[in-house]
Each structure stands twice: as structure tokens, then as C-alpha cells.
Amino acid sequence: MSGSFSQTIILTVGLAFLAAGCQPVQNQPLELRAPVAPEDAPDLSEYEVETLPVLPENTVTDTAANPDAPEPSSIVTLVQVITPIPEPAQPPLPAPPPQLEPASLVGRLPDQLYRQLGEPDYTRQEAKTEIWQYRLARCVVNFILSDDGKGKLVTSWVGRHRVLGLAYDHEACIRDLAERDQL
Fold first, then answer.
1. How far is CA 112 from CA 29, 93, 109, 132, 152, in A?
2. For residue range 76-97, what is the model confidence (pLDDT) as tens digits?
3. DSSP string of 106-143?
4. Which pLDDT score, from 0 to 100, does residue 16 have?
5. What is the mean pLDDT of residues 109-132?
6. Contact in structure between 165 and 140 (CB atoms under 8 Å)
7. For the purposes of burial, counting CB atoms within 10 Å of the CB of 182, is it exposed (0-12), middle (13-18) or buried (19 or more)?
8. Which of 26, 32, 123, 160: CA 20 to 30 A from 108?
9. Can you give the pLDDT at residue 41?
10. CATH class, 102-180 region
């Protein structure tokens, strides 16, 4: 249906231009209508209509009435131009919340862990193993530091909900851990 509508518009515009060369140009808006049934009318809600300025009468010369008059320097075009309405700009996506994965801290020296997360909220020593506990808003993370004879390193971690017995939410915990991150 849109192809037939487009062809009708092109034909109408062409005939209007042809007719404009044979008759005196009038300073009135040109209205183009295609024979379209109301139910077949195209949806033009995504288009806007821009009205172009109409030339003043003294700039158009009627060459049929005055054959000695100079040729007009411009041709009067359609008075209205239909252009698509631009799509609204999409707002930029918000930056993802900062995250710090506890597993990324495995293999660190104690002083590196201390610089990154600060003073642990609780520590416990058991033989050659030390536990540093960080109590965060929604979880508790225990980092296990073991001494293999060459010095202590973070060898593993354990996370749990802040309240014993409630389900651990890892995504919330890595966001909480990132808030504590000092680097």
C-alpha cells in the first residue's frame, strides 16, 4: 500500500510542477491529497510537518503575461515538507556498581590485604593459620592466611550472610566489599 501511496504523491508533485510552468505562479499554499480511504490512510504520527516560507509576490514574474520579463531565478516548491520525527536520544546507561571479588585477593600478602581493605574487624590465630574477618553491611568475609614456610599469604576466603542462618547474597557482598576497598 505504501508504494501506491508514494507513487500517487510523486505523480501529484510532478503534475504540480508541470502545471506551475504553464500557469502564473500564485502565492498560495499547494495542498496535495491522494485518494486514500480513511481506513487505508498511512500513520503519519511519527512525522512532523514543516512549513516553508512562501515567496513574496514581487519576486515571481508572470512570463505568460509579460514575455519580455526576465526568467525567474527560482521555482516555487511545495509549501510543506514532511520529515520523520527523530528518535528520542536514549539516556546513557548508569555505570555498574563497583565490585570487588574476594577470590581476586587470594595470593596476596597480609600487608597488601591490609592496604586494600584496612584493619580487619576481627582476627584469630590458629597454629600457622590466621583468619581476618571483615564485617560488611550485608555479609561477613573471612580471609584465611596460611604460612607455608615462606611467609603468610591469603590462601582462601569464606563468605556468609551477616546474620547466621540467612542466605548469602554474593552479588551484594562483592558490592559491600568494594565499598571497603581503599585502592
1. 78, 33, 5, 13, 11
2. 444 556 677 888 888 999 998 8
3. TT--HHHHHHHH-S-SEEEEETTEEEEEEE-SSEEEEE
4. 64
5. 95
6. no
7. exposed
8. 160
9. 66
10. alpha beta
- Distance between CA 88 and CA 142 in Å, rounded? 48
| Structural element, H or E, at residue 81 | strand 80-84
Q: In the β-sheet with 139-147, what is the strand arrangement from edge to edge?
A: 122-126, 129-135, 139-147, 152-161
For residues 117 and 182, the answer to whether their CB atoms sit within 8 Å is yes
Check if the beta carbon of residue 64 is closer than 8 Å to that of residue 75.
no
Residue ranges covered by each domain of the chain: 2-84, 102-180
76 close to 25: Cβ distance less than 8 angstroms: yes
Cα 61 to Cα 137: distance, rounded to the nearest angstrom:
82
Cell matching residue 182: 581503599
Collapsing DSSP to helix, strand or coil, 161 comes out as strand
